[in-house]
Amino acid sequence: MVRFWITYLQLVELFVNSLVHLLYGFYIFSSAVAGDLSQALNEYFQKPKLNNVEVKDGKLVKGVEEKETNANDLPPIVLVHGIFGFGKGRLGGLSYFGGAEKKDERVLVPDLGSLTSIYDRARELFYYLKGGQVDYGEEHSKVCGHSQFGRIYEQGHYTEWDEDHPIHFVGHSAGAQVVRVLQQMLADKAFKGYENTSENWVLSITALSGAFNGTTRAYLDGMQPEDGRTLKPICLLQLCRIGVIIYDWLDIPWLKNYYNFGFDHYNMSWKKMGLWGLVECLLGNAGPFASGDWILPDLTIQGSLRTNYHLHTFPNTYYFSYATKRTRKIMGITVPSSILKIHPLLFIRVLQMSQWHHPPDVSPPYKGYRDEDWLDNDGALNTISMTHPRLPIEHPSHLVEKDADCQPLQPGIWYYKIVEGDHILFIINRERAGLEFDLIYDSIFQRCRKHAFRKKLPTLPNEIHH
User: Can you provide one Gene Ontology molecular function annotated for this UniProt record (predicted)?
Assistant: First the structure.
C-alpha cells in the first residue's frame, strides 16, 4: 500500500511538472509569434524613417553606420545561451538575454543547439565565429552515429579571430561550460585546417549560473544516479525525449525556423529516416538519446567530472562567475528563500533540490561527496556547482563580496560572486529582475571593456620570435 501511494505521488509530481514546463514553453513561443506579427504590422502601416542622417558632399550618410565602424575596433563580447536557449534570430525578436545585448556596441549572440551536447555546441560556436562548415570531427561523429559535417556559415561573424584579436565570452548555465570546452579545443588545436589556435584566443570568460560541476536536478528530472548517462523509464526527460524526436521527425519548416533543438546532423527528418527510423529512435536504438550525445548526460555530476578531467584554467585568461541561490537555512534545514521571487517554472525544483539525498544503495559520484554541500540551489543548478570548476580538481578561485576584492583583476583565477536569485535571473524577462539585472550586465560589460586588450609581456633581449 505504501509503495502504491509513493508511485501515485510520483506520477502526480510528473504530471504537474510536465504541465508547468509545457505551459511555459507555449507562453514563450506564443509571445515570440505575437511580437513578430506586431512588428510586421507596424512595418506595413508605418513608413521607415531615417534616423541620425547627415548630408556630406551631397550624399546621405547615416551616423549609425559610423558608430558601428568604431564598434568594430572593439573585441566582441559573445553571449552563449544555455539549455533550451536560443540565439539572435530564433524565436523572432525575443531576446534570450532580456535585451542585455543592446548594452554594448559590439555583442554577438550565436544560435547553437539547445539540446545538443557540450562538445557539439563548442564545435558549432567555433565555426559560427570563423565561418565555414561545422566539422564535428570524424572520430566523434562515427562513435555517436551522426554526420561529420553540419551547418554552413558562408560568412563568419568574427573571421579575424586569433591571438591578436581575442574574444570575451559570457555564458549562461551550460553555455559557460561550452566556452570552457571551446577554449580547451583551441589550446589542443582540435580544428582541422586551423593549426595556429591557442587558449589565448579567449580574453575572458564570464559565467552566469554556470554549469561547471553538474547538478542534482538532472537526477530529479530522470537521469539515473547510478551512471549519469541513462534515463529512468518514466520521467520528465522521457517525455522531453519523445517530444523532441517527434518534433524533429515531422520537420515542419516554419516551426523549425522559430525553434530548433539542434539535431539536424542526426538526420531525424521523416524525409531521411522514414517511419522505421522514427520507431528506432523512439525505442532508443538510434539518435542522440541512444548515443548519449546530448546535453543532459553532460549536466550530471558524473558527466561534468568526465568533461572537467580534460579542461584547464589558463594563466592569461580572465575568469568571473556569478553563482545564484534561492535557498536559506531555517533551524538547520535548507528551504526556498522566497515564494513570490522564484519563477513558477523553478519553484518545485528549488524545494526538491534543497531536500536532495543521493540514493544510499548507489555509489556516490565522487570521493568525499556529501549531500549537505549540494542543497543550496537556484532551481536548476546547485550553488556549489556554479562558483568555479571544483571536480575532479579544484581550480584557483576567490570569493568576491565587494568590488575591492577583485581590484586589480588577475588572470588565471576564478573570481565569483554569490547572487540571490533563481536560474532565470539573467535571461528572458528583464523587467522581472529589475535594477539588479541592469547593474550586473553593466558591470560585466564594463569589466570586459576595462580588459579589452591583453597586456603583452615585454620581450627579453635573448628572446627571438619566429
Answer: hydrolase activity
CA distance 340 to 344: 9
202, 203, 323 from 407: Cα distances, Å: 21, 18, 20
Which residues are 418's β-sheet partners? Answer: 323
Each residue of 57-90: b (16+ CB within 10 Å) or e? eeeeeeeeeeeeeeeeebbbbbbbbbbbbbbbeb
DSSP string for residues in 230-247: SBPSSSHHHHHHHHHHHH
The DSSP bridge pattern shows strands 397-399 and 327-330 to be unpaired
Q: Domain limits of the chain?
A: 76-231+296-450
State phi, psi for 422 to the nearest 5 degrees.
-95, -175
pLDDT digits (tens, 9 = 90+) for 175-233: 999 999 999 999 999 999 999 999 999 999 999 999 999 999 999 999 999 999 999 99
**For the segment 40-95, what is each residue's pLDDT rounded down to a tens digit?**
788 778 755 545 544 444 444 444 444 444 566 789 999 999 999 999 878 878 89
How much of the chain is helix, strand and coil, in % rounded to 5?
Answer: 40, 15, 45
Helix axes 301-308, 174-187, angle to 10 degrees: 20
Query: pLDDT tens-digit profile of 287-326?
Result: 999 999 999 999 999 999 999 999 999 999 999 999 999 9
* Ramachandran class of 178: left when φ > 0, alpha when ψ lies in -120 to 50, beta otherwise: alpha
Closest CA to 333 of 280, 376, 276: 376
Does CATH place domain 76-231+296-450 in 3.90.230.10? no
Rounded to a whole number of angstroms, the distance between the first and last alpha carbons of the chain is: 77
CA 294 from centre of chain: 13
Q: Which residues contact 299 (CB under 8 A, 6 or more apart)?
A: 83, 174, 211, 214, 215, 218
Taking the C-alpha atoms of 352, 299, 87 and 346 in order, what is their torsion angle to the nearest 10 degrees?
0
pLDDT at 242 exceeding the cut of 60: yes
For a pLDDT cut of 90, what percent of the chain falls above it? 71
Rounded Cα distance between 54 and 63, Å, is: 7
DSSP state letters, 177-236: HHHHHHHHHHHTT-STT-TT--GGGEEEEEEES--SS--THHHHHTB-TTTSSSBPSSSH
**Alpha-carbon dihedral of residues 426, 429, 433, 437, nearest 10 degrees?**
50
Residue 57: CB partners within 8 Å, gap ≥ 6? Answer: none
Q: Between the CA of residue 305 and those of 227, 310, 389, 428, 433, what are the distances in Å?
A: 12, 9, 10, 30, 32
pLDDT at 333: 94
Indicate if the pLDDT at residue 430 is higher than 80: no
